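Preliminary data (for renewal application), nicotinamide-adenine-dinucleotide complex.
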Amino acid sequence: MAYETIELLINGEWRKGDGGGQDIINPADESVIGWCPHASAEELDMALAAADEGFKVWKNMTALARQKIMAKAADLMDERVDYIAECLTREEGKPHGESKIEIGFVSDLTRWYGEEGKRSYGRLIPPRIPGARQMVVKEPIGPVAAFVAWNFPATNVIRKISGALGAGCSIVIKPSEETPATAVCLAKCFQDAGLPPGVINMVFGVPDTVSRHILASPIIKKLSFTGSVPVGKHLQKLAADNMIRCTMELGGHSPVVVFDDADLDKAMDMVAGFKFRNAGQVCISPTRFYIQENVYDKFVDGFTERAKALKIGNGMDDGVFMGPLVADRRLAVMDDFVQDAKAAGAEIVTGGERMGNQGYFYAPTVMKDVPDAAKIMTEEPFGPLAPMQSFKSTDEVLDKANSLPFGLASYVFTTDANKAKTMEHGINAGMVGVNHPMVSMPETPFGGVNESGYGSEGGIEGLEAYQRTKFMTEMGV
Ligand code: NAD
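Predicted structure:
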């Protein structure tokens, strides 16, 4: 079985870790596949010091030189895709084909950020005083701290690393202890591409202990976090003490609005595939289905048919579309949502239970007539659950879409341009997809509003997240 040995990366060297550690579990069969070492407090200090030194080296290289290393790292990710994807599937559960797509995405992202670093232009501002020269430049903000969730073991990590490196920053990153191998493999691609020591430092540990230690350091100038809303709020408070700037990529509860004039078959094909991708453990997964009343039954039936046809199993087996949930704790969460919805009056059309008794598999679940009072209509399920209800008018559904404090992604299906515009402009969300769900690309800004956080990853905004602005004015030189 292919699975990477996990070590800590500090100042360009791999270390076994002095702070204990934990087993890594394959969620498809519950076997122990590895050991994730934890960093001691001393090792965290070493990582911080390394990032401080690494920053001095990396920021003083030209953007062109940085881009060459990043492009080489991206090529290595592509060359090693089969192996890295296998590690990813074994630790997280998603099908191997999906893992390969994820590695392709992060190599693309790394190339894009490297290139975009070369286009980080400043500007000249016409002076008020004759002879003065007024310049605005973007500088790398400094060493970055990043903590990320397990659901995209490559994407979540590389959005941080390549954004920081593209801007000229160094980083101390703590990937998830549940999915560390993918991150280690990707860090090795950068190292083998010639990255100077200390530019990427990778640590693991007890999350709260690590983040408290790292964010207390005056070395860190930026925090980027991908995870849940409560943890995001907690980390933002810690960051406040040192005035550390934050990017917060937090949870969502994405509405899908299907109007009666939509191309229903296309909508069902796209949304069913998207809903159950990565077993629904996707922050932009469609999680609240609002279907216009006269196509409601047809949509529920067609969507259910598609959900039932999905092949569920070990992500390393051929033809599997959906793997297990990441850990056993998620099974109980799914059951709780389902029982609560039932008690509130929802009908479970398919699924609603664990599959088998080995591996953390949960059946693709469709629930209809789910009332607003059911917990699943207000709390992010982060699993393969699709709760549906019908609506009558555009005004009513816009209010429903905007009824929660979250605002990450949202989806609308209609062939009516006016309805599309009303929803696009009216929905409180960081991203809106009309008639297709592709809202995550290297060159476009990805991020939420309100309790889903703030700041973007990807696009020029993603680079700016790791930059600070300096105004310089000079005369007589
Ligand atoms: P979580 O916030 O509990 O954990 C997320 C990650 O943060 C984990 O790796 C965990 O180890 C780490 N973490 C937890 N507490 C920490 C602390 N005190 N200090 C530092 N790191 C800490 O969330 P979860 O339930 O495991 O993950 C799913 C959540 O992440 C969902 O709410 C999902 O929407 C969100 N998410 C958001 C995005 C996005 O881009 N907006 C992407 C993926 C996941």
